[in-house]
């Protein structure tokens, strides 16, 4: 019976040649294929590491900027409150100034009105004096023309008053 695997010298020779061919092929493929693939994988690994480092740096920078902006936002509210406070103070000062100017103007107007009223009173008094003088001279003229006796004098006064009329004394 023949054996399944014959270890004859031809088989050993083929096996050794096959092993040498595989070793040479593996070495040759290693230089031609595996090394470029390894180099490509190393480059990719380095690129990924750089991307991760850059992302971490960007994240850290973003966190710092976020904190800075949050601080600015807090300060913006304070600054806005300060600006509004200053505006309120200015508005109150302006209001006080305007009210004071209005009071001064009102006082000037009242003073002018009082002065005009005084002048009007003086004018009316002067007119009244003139009217009284003219009445007295008319009475004196009538008294001199007629004989002076009390009944005649009373009638003359009443007559003069009727001539003058009530409208002269009331205006």
Task: Provide an overview of this structure.
The protein has 171 residues and is mainly α. 92% of the residues lie in helices and 0% in strands. The protein contains three helices and no strands. It has helices at residues 9-145, 150-164, 166-170. It is rod-shaped. The mean pLDDT is 85.
Task: For this entry, give a set of tags.
mainly alpha, rod-shaped, 3 helices, 92% helix, 171 residues
Order of helices and strands: HHH
Helix content: over 70%
For the CA atoms, what is the radius of gyration? 64 Å
Question: Sheet bearing the most strands, described?
Answer: none
* Overall 3D shape: rod-shaped
Q: Compute the average pLDDT.
A: 85
Low-pLDDT sequence parts: none
Global structural class:
mainly alpha
- Number of discrete helical segments: 3
Please give a quick description of this structure.
The protein is mainly α and 171 residues long.
Helix and strand topology:
Layout: H1 9-145, H2 150-164, H3 166-170
Helix pairs in contact: 1-2
């Amino acid at each position: 019976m023949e054996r399944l695997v014959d270890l004859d010298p031809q088989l050993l020779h083929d096996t050794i040649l096959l092993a040498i061919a595989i070793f040479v092929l593996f070495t040759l493929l290693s230089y031609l294929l595996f090394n470029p693939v390894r180099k490509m994988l190393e480059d990719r690994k380095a690129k990924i590491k750089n991307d991760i480092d850059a992302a971490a740096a960007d994240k850290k920078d973003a966190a710092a900027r976020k904190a800075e902006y949050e601080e600015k936002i807090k300060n913006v509210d304070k600054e806005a409150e300060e600006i509004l406070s200053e505006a309120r103070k200015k508005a109150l000062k302006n209001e006080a100034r305007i009210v004071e100017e209005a009071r001064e103007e009102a006082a000037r107007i009242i003073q002018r009105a009082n002065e005009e009223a005084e002048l009007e009173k003086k004018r009316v008094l002067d007119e009244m004096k003139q009217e009284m003088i003219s009445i007295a001279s008319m009475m004196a003229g009538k008294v001199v023309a007629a004989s002076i006796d009390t009944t005649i004098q009373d009638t003359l006064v009443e007559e003069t008053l009727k001539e003058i009329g009530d409208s002269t004394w009331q205006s």
